[in-house]
Amino acid sequence: MFCIPFLLLGMFLGETVSGLAFAIPWLLGLLMFSNGLGLRLQDLRILRQKPWLLPVILALFHVVMPAIALGITTALGFPTDAVIGFVLLALVPMSATAAVWTGVYCGNLTLSMALVLADTIITPFFIPYILTLFFAAEVVMDPFHMLWGLFWMLFFPTTLAIVCNRLTNGEMQRVAGKPLAFVSQLAVFSLLVINGGVVAPFVQESNVLFFLIFGASFVLGAFWFVFSFMLGRLLFTEGGDVLAFMFTGAMRTSTTGMVIAVAYFPPAVALVMVSSMFFQQAQAVWYGKVARDWLDKRERPSVE
Prior knowledge:
Layout: H1 3-13, H2 15-18, H3 24-36, H4 45-49, H5 53-75, H6 80-91, H7 97-104, H8 109-122, H9 127-135, H10 143-167, H11 171-205, H12 208-235, H13 239-250, H14 254-264, H15 267-299
Helix pairs in contact: 1-11, 3-10, 3-11, 5-6, 6-9, 6-15, 7-8, 7-13, 8-13, 9-10, 11-14, 11-15, 12-13, 12-15, 14-15
């Protein structure tokens, strides 16, 4: 919930900060490099033990979920820009905070970290082409240009951080980890303020669509947690694995989504990302507790 004051500040400042949008890709690259230092290639070993898991997850979370978002929002009559926002939100990489909540609720942290790492590296190559597949008839897009941009904003800084940390045997993370973490927090705050300024004109209109987008973000966010939990129950037997699957499946890096939206789409797309930030962390707390309690009851041996 810490992001909300910075978004509101950006909305209040409006054009004063929206002119800084040119800095957004650089701020995101810095953030991805900092996050990449905390990712370890050895976490991917768990995916080698289950070779079926990665393609299944990519198909479910970055094809099926966007298709569901497309179907629901189109059926509800949302305009194309808003529909693109909800589809894009399902396409962007899994959030690193999913691993945090997995640890809080005693889930399989190794599995969560492995999924986040693999998804962060692979997903940028999917986003432009899935969007083109779904919206080629409504929106003119240059998928290669978008892919090139995502490569430099997401893939390159993340991979560079992982390689640097590997080559230095973790020394880079030990030396530069804390200073970069502080700088990356400043980058997050700056991204939130700038993006708040970008969507400010749309928000100030206070039209019906504005409130509908916020309502749909809340409902769809809740649906993704339930959907991911149910899929986790089908794919795994251990409760810790189910929790890891639920959090990684339901939580997305809205900051990344905002950057992509501002760079390539109208403000309504970015508004979807902003609205998701208002609910995602609070829903993680609630559904994490509900899922943990339910799993504990199922796994607790019955007393004769």
